[in-house]
Amino acid sequence: MKKTVWTRRHLVDTHSLTVEEIFEVMAEAKALAGIKAPLLAGKVIANLFYENSTRTRTSFELAAKYLSADVVNLDIATSSAQKGESLLDTAETLAAMGVDALVIRHSSSGVCQQLASHFKNRLSIINAGDGMHEHPSQALLDLYTMLEKLQTVAGKKIVIVGDILHSRVARSNLHILTKLGAEVHLVGPPTLCIDPEPLEDALEDADVVMCLRLQMERQTSGLIPSLAEYREFYGIDRQKLELAKPNVLVMHPGPMNRGVEITSDVADDSLIRQQVRNGVIVRMAILKLLLQETGG
Amino acid sequence: MKKTVWTRRHLVDTHSLTVEEIFEVMAEAKALAGIKAPLLAGKVIANLFYENSTRTRTSFELAAKYLSADVVNLDIATSSAQKGESLLDTAETLAAMGVDALVIRHSSSGVCQQLASHFKNRLSIINAGDGMHEHPSQALLDLYTMLEKLQTVAGKKIVIVGDILHSRVARSNLHILTKLGAEVHLVGPPTLCIDPEPLEDALEDADVVMCLRLQMERQTSGLIPSLAEYREFYGIDRQKLELAKPNVLVMHPGPMNRGVEITSDVADDSLIRQQVRNGVIVRMAILKLLLQETGG
Amino acid sequence: MKKTVWTRRHLVDTHSLTVEEIFEVMAEAKALAGIKAPLLAGKVIANLFYENSTRTRTSFELAAKYLSADVVNLDIATSSAQKGESLLDTAETLAAMGVDALVIRHSSSGVCQQLASHFKNRLSIINAGDGMHEHPSQALLDLYTMLEKLQTVAGKKIVIVGDILHSRVARSNLHILTKLGAEVHLVGPPTLCIDPEPLEDALEDADVVMCLRLQMERQTSGLIPSLAEYREFYGIDRQKLELAKPNVLVMHPGPMNRGVEITSDVADDSLIRQQVRNGVIVRMAILKLLLQETGG
To answer: Which of C59, C66, C255 is facing A85, going by the closest CB pair?
Structure first.
């Protein structure tokens, strides 16, 4: 009856998602909100994290457990003795052990697409952030959070502020939001954003302001002059927000540097908690769509 | 019918526990001894450890699993890339993900009380050791172990030996034991214990001797002259125990430095295994009391 | 009816296994292949790894979960603050917490036998690799994999190539294979193998070639002159395999150094994936035999 659109085995990007697929994730997520059900009992999900991210790993782990799947965590980033096996060999090893889905975070852009092409229907690859490429579940949870508040993003003015150049979060959001007819503005220091609009222009009458996390190592690498200057020109505070619509939504993918890219009072009024809550829900929807057998 | 006393959502200390509450934990623990039951099915417990403690983390993890709760482990101490998010933001993130209880170990005294005040009824905070403040589940399991052997601690002479000044175990035990009418003696080197009694006086006719673990870094920090001297003056051995009652109970919170604060033969005759076994039982009781919905 | 042979509580080596016991593991594994069943519901398995091995730990973890056992992981190798407790005290602590089996990897040869002698019937010790001594579950899964292809190993020529001297995998395989009547040949550089046969002689008409992983630190320790020389003389490639039987089976315990002990094309045609898949199955059989209560 339902499930007419979704046929994918992998979620590696938002770039290739159709509008129908995006809305199917939204609908599944809405149906799963607040529910725990053994829809994926007997399935095994492996969290294969080459970069440390307690937050994203825990979100996927809980999403899987709320659907009664088994979870194994492989924190390659923290294992002292990395034996230098290739990602492909490690993934094949997990496939041979009977794992149904690999949730992967890796520093190299594009590795999830390579694995998806390699494995085809043998298991599901879920991109939990690959280099500077994409972070699709983050963008889907961001969309879910915006839709809760705005009903639609079509025609809305959405400003993404920060290190656009290196941000997989910005890239995945940009793909989804433009597909859905939003007016996306990208703003940041000239070293971190190509051809940036002035922040004041972008913020004018904005519906949503999405702050990106500033990677602290950008400073030591010379890409920003100082945290103080970054905060002055790009940190989101109450005063800058006065340019936006009165009910402007402020979002942040977390973890936040309070007092750098966002002031603490703005953070407290932001949607960051709703994003985290919706993250679990949207990931439950992703796992269900990718893994649940369709009856016939 | 039962559950008339317990109304707390958090366990942050023993200082504020009433005698009735302490006995309710004891009664619940006794009822749960040796049992596995799905009393907390559907609940989620997060172990949030900023200091490494395989022993305490595993004890809480097993206690939760024996009651069919889901567990996620966040070993912040061992994660290579700590992104500098505040404890409060991390705790709020886990709350947003649907976690029902946070078991927290942290180096800062008082953080669990702060979190409990912040979260109120939104989730349960369980202190698994905060700085030099408290370690309430340890003191409750110590009490359970003593009651198994002595029926009551009222009027008993209980000697705690070691680094009293820095010990959250000593502090939590002291609160409970004095509430219950025990006669508690604190003994240690003058640099690690305020106004210490001579060990010989304390040990005379003692019912219980509780050895604290010597933190090895105390030596390099100049607080004790040498391990050999510590062992000679404060290490518990058979000869010193001759001053105590014939059936004196020897306890240790673990992990032990055999041959330092306790000789190996005394360790083998001590109650340390019973303490560990009772630790799981008492933590089951704590989780049940804090998390189980009361029927109406 | 069945279970007439197996009475062990521990699996510490293959040296002491009888032929009947080996075949009982094979039969159990065959019966469990592809199955998930709650045969060990309520049992608790602790993975106690003093050396890092994501692969073996995950294999045991999944084997346990496929049988509905609870699993706790203690990655001592990666915990930043190892408090110096002895292995015996740590094992006793886990026993007191109610753990039914300890899966142990440790750098010291013989520790699993010591623990088994100590614990007797109180819990099960499973050796997941102890120093240069044994790695019995690896040898049993290797046997299972050979039997799938060859039906029997009796009379088969099996060549093990590499660092024989330091290899617990070689040692455990040697015991099993010779018990079952195989003709085992051990080959490697003279610094890593006592009285080695020339590789060409060994490979002639071989039924199975098992490559061992080259520990990269052997080079810096002066035991091999260079990786290039090792590859030339002992690396298994198509050309060397022409000496063997046409359908020769190539095996590797993983993780592989592609281009060192095995060329990448030979690796792709090897049985390594089957070995990994069978690893989970054989470990399920081991856990079931050691832990399942027999009815009466």
So the answer is: C255
* pLDDT tens digits for range B158-195: 999 999 999 999 999 999 999 999 999 999 999 999 99
H/E segment holding residue A71:
strand A70-75
CB–CB of B128/B137 below 8 Å? yes
Give yes or no for a cis peptide into A196 (omega within 30° of 0): no
Q: Measured between beta carbons, which residues in chain C are less than 8 angstroms from residue B61?
A: 72
**Residues C179, C190 contacting (CB under 8 angstroms):** no
Give me the helices (H) in chain A, please. Answer: 19-32, 54-66, 87-96, 111-119, 136-150, 168-179, 199-203, 217-220, 227-234, 238-241, 264-269, 272-291
Q: Is C217 exposed, middle or buried (0-12, 13-18, 19+ CB in 10 A)?
A: exposed
Identify which of A74, A83, A96 has the shortest CB distance to residue C255.
A83
Q: Tens of pLDDT along A127-149?
A: 999 999 999 999 999 999 999 99
- Cβ atoms of C42 and B36 within 8 Å: the answer is yes
Please indicate whether, in this complex, the C-beta atoms of C59 and A85 are within 8 angstroms of each other: no
Between β-strands C208-211 and C157-161, what pairing exists: parallel, antiparallel or unpaired?
parallel
Cα–Cα distance measured from residue C242 to residue A116, given in angstroms and rounded to the nearest whole number: 35
Q: Is A130 helix (H, G, I), strand (E, B) or coil?
A: strand
Using CA coordinates, name the residue in chain A closest to B78.
A78
pLDDT in tens, A175-223: 999 999 999 999 999 999 999 999 999 999 999 999 999 987 777 788 8
- Tokens 């008492």, residue located: B282
The C-alpha torsion from B221 through B224 and B227 to B228, rounded to 10°, is: 150
What letter would DSSP give residue C262?
B
- Which string of DSSP letters, residue by residue, matches C72-120? EEEETTT-S------HHHHHHHHHHTT-SEEEEEESSTTHHHHHHHHHT
A185 within 8 A of A199, measured Cβ to Cβ: no
What residue of A is the nearest CA neighbor of C283?
Answer: A97
d(CA B278, CA B138): 10
Q: Walk across the sheet containing A70-75 and list its strands.
A: A70-75, A44-49, A101-106, A124-130
Three-state DSSP class for residue C189? coil
Phi, psi dihedral angles at B42 (to 5 degrees)? 90, -15
Q: How far apart are CA C53 and CA C71, in angstroms?
A: 16
Q: Which of A100, A110, A157 is nearest to A134 (CA)?
A: A110
Tokens 């407790």 belong to which residue?
C85
Half-sphere exposure of C81 (CA within 13 A, CB side): 14
Q: Which H or E run includes B116?
A: helix B111-119
**pTM of this structure:** 0.95
- Write out chain A residues lying below 8 Å of B97, CB-based: 58-59, 62, 276-277, 279-280
Q: How far apart are the first and last CA of chain A?
A: 11
Structural domains in chain B, sorted by start: 19-135+277-291 (3.40.50.1370), 136-272 (3.40.50.1370)
What amino acid is encoded at C130 in this protein?
D
Position B3 scores a pLDDT of 55
Give, in order, the Cα–Cα distances in Å from B195 to each of A278, B187, B189, C22, C273: 55, 9, 9, 65, 66
